Amino acid sequence: MSLIEQVDIDYIAAYKAKDDVKKSVLRHLKTAIKNRMVDGGGEITDEDVLDLVAKQIKQRKDAIEQYESAGRPELAEKEAIEIKALSGYMPPELSTGELEAAVDKAIADIGASSIQDMGKVMQAIMAVHKGQVDGKALSSLVRSRLA
Length: 147
Known about the structure:
Layout: H1 3-16, H2 20-40, H3 46-69, H4 73-87, H5 96-110, H6 118-128, H7 135-146
Helix pairs in contact: 1-2, 2-3, 2-4, 3-4, 5-6, 5-7, 6-7
């Protein structure tokens, strides 16, 4: 079953269960999928859907930071619940040990020796472990290894 089909099934289940938060989150995701299909000529892959989910999660994380700095914890909590609903579609994140091993392997494969090679290393890791790596954690780890 493709990710698009799973989103449709989950949307119907949330609608029947009257789960307003999940229904709203999935409605926004379905809209983003349709927009991507229109822009891309009709075909969309599971990888494209994962990109859209990751983008929506990132937007909500940014919103949480803004709400917390503005003293609006109730809105930040709502965004956190929405992140939890979207996270079910993402592959599991790499553990710290797995991330360190991936960084070491990428540095060795590329032959990176200075901070100037940071972009190449990060690009290689993000290509292999799409959706499984937090960009900020990866950036700080690569920076510490190349410094």
